[in-house]
Amino acid sequence: MEFNWPGEKLLIKLCDTIAGKGVGLLLKPWQMRREGAAAAEIKRLNSLMLAQTKIEVADIQSGKKVLLPGGRLENAGVTAIHEGVLPTTRLAIIEELEEIVRANVLKEEFRKEVSVTKAVLYAEQELEQDTQDATDVPVSDDWLLRWRDSAAAVSSDELQALWGKVLAGEVKSPGAFSLRTLAFLRNISREDAVLIEKLAPYVVKNFVVRPPKNKELIEDLDFLNFLELQELGILSGVEALGMSTQLRSSAQENFLQGLTSHGRVLLVRHSDVNRILKLPIYIVTRLGLEVLNLGWKRADEAYLLKVGEMIKQMGFEVEIGGYIIAGEDKIDCVDLKKI
Question: How far apart are CA 122 and CA 157, in angstroms?
């Protein structure tokens, strides 16, 4: 019987996605061996290859080695211009400058390829234990080229891992990250990322419940932070202090509404099926939802309990617990407790 590891289908789709697109070229020899090698062996070879590549890049940057125009590495000093002969004419000086420029261009292209390859490997790590089935919808070539340019522009492991998550998410669900989101992530600052991470625990469905007058729901963020998040394009309606959402029952006999937040749920009930739950909110934009899908999310239990108490004071019955996705727009609630 053929054995399949959890994320095999998604990994195969990832390989098919980047094959022949100029993405992850350093992985090509190993990708050609995928059909005949075990997953553990593939990972080991990839890790060894990247480790060696990182050493060589560090040697180039420190000046220990020189990357020649043909792609060959030599120890610094061994390949002095004209084997140690100093240029004595203007033509020789020009030739020397051209050699230096070509070497610098090759060095930068080498660095970019290493960054893209590492991002691809991070994407593999995201997908290898994912049990989701691979869809037949392909990743757009234009999207992939934009992603490659963005991944090539970074050097830190943290940002390479971020772009790996983006690629993995797009392979799983093509269209999950728009070109606008790619542009946003390419220009995001560390301070912006920290602010978005602070917001993440307070997102319920596609909004943030705004505190009513003289009440505090969110301690980590103030009004100026919310304005800044609106300027970033993550939130909308911050100035509109009267903005609210009106939620109707998702059931037919009694009022029932589930407010989900990163694995936690507030289950709201009422005997009157026509009852409407009205909440003051800030809207999370499409850009905001896509960015938050990168994993900057966790539920804030204290915040959810405060929101539950606020809803309870409106005359609803409220329970808090976990949930499991049971299908499109369907969840199964577990371990519910009354507020």
Answer: 10
Considering the entire predicted model, what is its pTM?
0.71
Going from the C-alpha of 81 to that of each of 77, 84, 104, 114, 161, the distances in angstroms are 9, 6, 15, 27, 39
How many other C-beta atoms are found inside a 10 Å radius of the C-beta of residue 230?
A: 18
157 residue type, one letter: D
In sequence order, what are the residues at sequence separation of 6 or more whose Cβ sits closer than 8 angstroms to the Cβ of residue 204?
Answer: 259, 260, 261, 266, 304, 307
Rg (CA), the chain: 26
Q: Residue 141: which of 292, 23, 32 has the closest Cα?
A: 23
Is residue 155 helix, strand or coil? coil
Residue type at position 334: V
277-284 vs 244-247, strand pairing mode: antiparallel
One pLDDT digit (tens) per residue for the chain, 339 residues: 344 555 567 767 777 777 655 555 445 544 444 444 444 555 555 555 556 666 666 666 666 665 555 555 566 654 444 444 344 455 665 666 666 666 666 677 777 888 888 888 888 888 877 777 778 888 898 999 999 999 999 888 888 888 999 999 999 999 999 999 999 999 988 889 889 989 999 999 999 998 776 567 788 888 899 999 999 999 999 887 778 999 999 999 999 999 999 999 999 999 999 999 999 999 999 999 999 988 777 899 999 999 999 999 999 999 999 998 877 778 888 999 999
